[in-house]
Write a structure and sequence with these properties.
The chain is an alpha+beta fold. The protein contains three helices and four strands. The protein has helices at 45-59, 67-86, 95-105, and strands at residues 8-13, 16-21, 26-31, 34-39. It has a four-stranded antiparallel sheet with strand order 1-2-3-4, with no helix packed on it.
């Protein structure tokens, strides 16, 4: 991670693309010669997470993100860190292999 904060996502489709900027909280739509910017209602992601957690506790509904999702994402993040430290690319295994490995070690 460098000193420059860059939080963007680019989605490319057959008829154009969408660029989401998480820092400025805007979305740009580009399609066959035209573009449009749409602001996103400013929201703090941690506030959303906490609100969702409290709602799940109060209503006994399951969370949107499962334990399995969290384990897999942590594994991918750790692989990214290892890849950066080694300056090489690493394969990301299928979800099932990661979860099976985590259940054996836990």
């Amino acid at each position: 991670l460098g000193p420059t904060r860059l939080r963007k996502i680019l989605v490319i489709a057959s008829e154009g693309f969408i660029l989401g900027d998480f820092i400025n909280q805007t979305i740009f739509y580009y399609e066959e010669g035209w573009s449009r910017e749409k602001p996103i209602k400013p929201v703090e992601p941690l506030d959303l997470e906490i609100s969702h957690f409290l709602e799940c506790v109060q209503t006994s509904r399951p969370p949107k993100v499962t334990l399995e999702d969290s384990i897999y994402c942590l594994h991918v993040a750790l692989l990214c860190e290892k890849s950066s430290a080694r300056n090489c690319s690493l394969s990301i295994p299928q979800t099932e292999r990661v979860l099976k490995s985590a259940s054996r070690s836990g």
